[in-house]
Design goal:
With 617 residues, this protein is an alpha/beta fold. The chain has 18 helices and 24 strands. It is 25% helix and 16% strand. Helix 6 runs parallel beside helix 8, helix 12 packs parallel to helix 16 and helix 13 runs antiparallel to helix 14. The longest helix is centred in the first third of the chain and has 16 residues.
């Protein structure tokens, strides 16, 4: 079908082949973005209403979390029809209008592609479970029960393997009708597809093509590195006190994953005109895997979401046993990914891209960045939010902004278990309480890292419903909505929103920020974050950007003769040589006043303040 073409805009990247390397992507979680009909659930017409807001922010693409038809067991990540829109969010006509509205403003749409699993209400699975001889039986992963003396087939302990689900409980569900178990790595209502079956892959390819024909510009691929399993499926390690064995080794980065992705690229993406942007969510992906997934000459993905840096908040018991994030480890981890995917120089000095990073602090599955990596104390929240933004955007790769991040939204307050909505959190609570844990202690363990922190409604304005809805929101608005909201920030110099807008504009205008080489300095200090970006154009012109950030509540002494200057000098960076550099962006000042107090590095940065210097060489 025909669809509205992208109309280039000076506020956004254009149609150059490498547009996605310069782009900034904004994630919309539709359920919590904007409600237009008063039912308390966000919808596609609500996104359309806010397109001018996104246009003003300057983002280049909108990643839309699932809006497909779904029973909503996992808030839309359990899909029952890939080619229809769930009535809670609108209609296909609304989706077409969203694409048209984005394209008319020079922005693109990235759809969530959830193809490791479907809903158990998808017609494919309904057919698959109808009989052992079903033509679609092999579209999913079925296994007979293991024979255990004293246990009837289907009883706990007869599962084909001892694996646990990522959402608590066993990873296998008994089907009484056909007398077999099916695999579900997530909810029991999310059966895993069998990607070994070429018919499954063709069906996925056909569906992707259908959406591209409708005008979609790319895909964020949900847990895509789990689609290739390691066969035969066998028990995983199970430690003392563990309720289940660990099957991750058998389901992540499997033996055919690169074959499957290359086939997808070859059959669906490569033949399209222009560039289709792809990012694969890849839990457990390692540094050595990054180039395999994202090197341009391999023809798989543009980039992956890795989980190592967000995993630094996990304690010995996992995400619901949280620990403070070690600043030095966080810097080192992100820098290691920069190094792993940095361009490689040949003997003549020519650079070849080895891959590309996706840079993010939070998303719909992670708690709010300012509460996890910054400081959500009211006196420091805005400053730390702006400095976190500068840090992220100064890394090489495509930055991702999660809705509300550009406002400095924080984690919410959970008085008790009735405050939670997230399936993962609720399942964990039930499992641990059933195992004998204290209910209050379990709730305490959920508060910091529950996915519900990211899913409270966007805070558009003060007052009831925070401008999100005229009804009762599906999940309560965070308590600080009257202080933290878009109405108090859009167009207000020095606000978090305006800082994000300035960062995005700087990225669009400054090749050193989008493409320049990356170097982390003062890596061993927990109180600084210092990044140097360097770029040389085809004409030999060279430019540099330098980020100086106080990473924490302690001020940063930058005076000549001070210890920080000495440490930087020992690494080959003389701040004296930056004395005439332009102050391009400062967290503590409005964007248009960044240089009003002079040039070069100041003598001091206060708590959580940061500065980006720019110079030509």
């Amino acid at each position: 079908m025909s669809h509205p073409a992208l109309i280039p805009s000076p506020r956004h990247v254009g149609q150059e082949p490498d547009w996605w390397r310069h782009a900034v992507v904004y994630q919309v979680y539709p359920r919590s973005f904007q409600d237009t009909n008063g039912d308390g659930v966000g919808d596609i017409p609500g996104i359309i209403e806010r397109l001018d807001y996104l246009d003003a922010l300057g983002v280049d693409a909108v990643w839309l979390s699932p809006v497909y038809r779904s029973p909503q067991d996992d808030n839309g990540y359990d899909i029952s029809d890939y080619r229809d829109i769930d009535p809670a969010f609108g209609t296909l006509a609304d989706l077409d209008a969203l694409i048209a509205g984005l394209h008319s403003r020079g922005m693109r749409l990235v759809m969530d592609l959830v193809v490791n699993h479907t809903s158990d209400e998808h017609p494919w699975f309904v057919d698959s479970r109808s009989a052992v001889g079903s033509a679609k039986r092999d579209w999913y992963i079925w296994r007979p029960p293991r024979q255990v003396s004293g246990l009837e087939p289907g009883q706990p302990g007869t599962e084909p393997t001892n694996w646990g689900s990522f959402f608590s409980g066993p990873a296998w569900e008994w089907d009484e009708t056909t007398g077999e178990f099916y695999l579900h790595l997530f909810s029991r209502k999310q059966p895993d597809l069998n990607w070994e079956n070429p018919e499954v892959r063709r069906a996925v390819h056909d569906m992707m093509t259908w959406w591209l024909d409708r005008g979609v510009d790319g895909f964020r691929m949900d847990v895509i590195n789990l689609v290739s399993k390691t066969y035969p499926l066998v028990d995983g390690a199970q430690g003392p006190g563990d309720l289940f064995g660990d099957g991750f080794h058998a389901v992540a980065n499997g033996p055919r994953i690169h074959e499957f992705l290359a086939e997808m690229n070859r059959e669906v993406l490569a033949p399209r005109p222009g560039h289709i942007i792809t990012v694969g969510e890849a839990p457990g992906v390692r540094l050595s895997d990054g180039p395999l997934y994202t090197a341009p000459d391999r023809g798989e993905l543009d980039m992956v979401f890795q989980f190592e840096h967000v995993g630094l908040a996990d304690g010995p018991g996992g995400k619901f046993d949280p620990v403070p994030v070690d600043h030095v480890a966080l810097k080192a981890n992100l820098a290691s990914w920069q190094d792993a995917l940095a361009p490689k120089a040949d003997p003549d000095g020519a650079l070849t891209e080895r891959g590309w990073n996706s840079n993010y602090w939070d998303n719909h599955d992670q708690p709010r960045a300012v509460s996890r990596f910054g400081d959500d104390d009211p006196g420091l929240r805005a400053m730390s939010a702006k400095t976190l933004a500068s840090i992220l955007h100064m890394h090489r790769g495509t930055p991702y902004i999660y809705q509300g991040e550009e406002l400095g939204m924080t984690n919410t307050v959970f008085p008790d278990i009735s405050s939670f909505r997230d399936l993962e959190s609720l399942n964990h609570y039930r499992e641990r309480v059933a195992a004998g844990d204290d209910p209050g202690a379990v709730v305490d363990s959920l508060r910091a890292n529950s996915r519900d922190n990211a899913r409270t409604p966007v805070q558009w304005e003060p007052g009831p419903g925070a401008g999100f809805t005229t009804g009762t929101p599906w999940i309560p608005v965070a308590p600080n909505a009257d202080e933290v909201n878009a109405a108090s920030q859009v167009g207000v110099p020095g606000s978090v929103f305006e800082h994000y807008r300035a960062l995005i504009s700087l990225r669009h205008a400054e090749p050193a920020m989008a493409l320049g080489a990356f170097r982390l300095l003062d890596a061993a200090s927990p109180d600084t974050w210092i990044i140097l970006r360097s770029w040389k154009g085809a004409d030999g012109a060279a430019r540099q950007l330098l980020l100086l950030a106080a990473y924490g509540s302690a001020p940063l002494d930058l005076t000549e003769g001070g210890t920080l200057r000495a440490r930087l000098a020992a690494e080959g960076l003389d701040l004296g040589e930056w004395a005439d550099a332009e102050r391009a962006l400062t967290a503590s000042l409005p964007a248009d006043q960044a240089g009003v107090l002079g040039r070069g590095a100041p003598d001091r940065l206060e708590a959580w303040d940061s500065l980006i210097l720019r110079r030509a060489l």
